[in-house]
Amino acid sequence: MKIRKATEKDVTGIAYVHINSWQSTYKGILPNQYLASLNLETRKKNWLRNLKMLHNATYVAENGEGQIIGFVAGGPEQTNDHHIQGEVYAIYLLKEYQRQGIGRKMIKTVVDELIDKEHKNLIIWALKDNPSCGFYKALGGHVIAEKTVKMAGIELIEVGYGWDDIHEILLYL
Ligand SMILES: CC(C)(COP(=O)(O)OP(=O)(O)OC[C@H]1O[C@@H](n2cnc3c(N)ncnc32)[C@H](O)[C@@H]1OP(=O)(O)O)[C@@H](O)C(=O)NCCC(=O)NCCS
Predict the structure, then answer these.
(1) Would you say 21 and 92 are in contact if contact means Cβ atoms under 8 Å apart?
(2) Which of 9, 28, 90, 126 is the most buried if burial means most Cβ atoms within 10 Å?
(3) Does the 2-170 domain belong in CATH 3.50.50.60?
(4) In Å, how far are 11, 36, 79, 144, 171 from 18, measured between CA atoms?
(5) What average pLDDT score do residues 113-134 get?
(6) Ligand 1, residues at Cβ distance < 6 Å
(7) Are 160 and 123 in contact (CB under 8 A)?
(8) Domain-by-domain residue ranges, the chain?
(9) Where is the signal peptide (predicted)?
(10) Which among 99, 122, 139 is the best mutation to test ligand 1's pocket, defined by most ligand atoms within 8 Å of the CB?
(11) pLDDT computed for residue 107 by the predictor
């Protein structure tokens, strides 16, 4: 397993993991019909745009055969909340690669870059019903914010896990 910086050539692999992991993670949380309709070409276009954003840090995890099995993306906090500077926007692994310590390694890679870019603190948003909230708790995160979001026509609660000092998360990685 190798973690490396993503390039524009990786859009298909990233989009595939994104859709596949959404379908397994959000089953029972988001409507089946919506999950089944997620489209690879649309996601590829979104990721191409994301990868062109210079302030963003995106990394992929590859298995021994060079297949992309996960990705993580971070950068400046997106809502211009002046108290929070850094954010991990997304972290997804294919189901068969979860709970093997790869998520920890991916977070470490992106957090190291956010620290290099002098982000002092950190937030990561997750749907409140997502079992992966356990991951952020295990990394020392505390819920510091909550908001309602509309996805696939339904209202869901998102919680923001925060670290007042971004270096604190390194103690768990
Ligand atoms: C969330 C995710 C990136 C974590 O990566 P991972 O490689 O599975 O996690 P790790 O193996 O590094 O786990 C580190 C610790 O976090 C905790 N943890 C991880 N996933 C958990 C879960 N689903 N429930 C409870 N605790 C969890 C555990 O304490 C774990 O340590 P342990 O396995 O020794 O008990 C990955 O599971 C994933 O892609 N999940 C589906 C997509 C998703 O929900 N992404 C986040 C959207 S906000």
Answers:
(1) yes
(2) 126
(3) no
(4) 10, 13, 23, 26, 28
(5) 96
(6) 21, 25, 91-93, 98-104, 126, 130-132, 134-135, 138
(7) yes
(8) 2-170
(9) none
(10) 99
(11) 98
Beta strands across the sheet bearing 142-151:
2-5, 57-62, 68-76, 86-93, 122-127, 154-163, 142-151
Among 38, 98, 124, 143, residue to substitute to test ligand 1 (most atoms within 8 Å of Cβ): 98
d(CA 60, CA 42): 19
Which of ligand 1's atoms lies nearest the C-alpha of 70?
39
Average pLDDT, integer, range 11-19: 98
Question: Can you tell me which residue has the tokens 């397994």?
Answer: 24
Nearest CA among 135, 153, 130 for reference residue 21: 130
Measure 45 CA to ligand 1 centroid, in angstroms. Answer: 27
Q: What is the pLDDT of residue 112?
A: 98
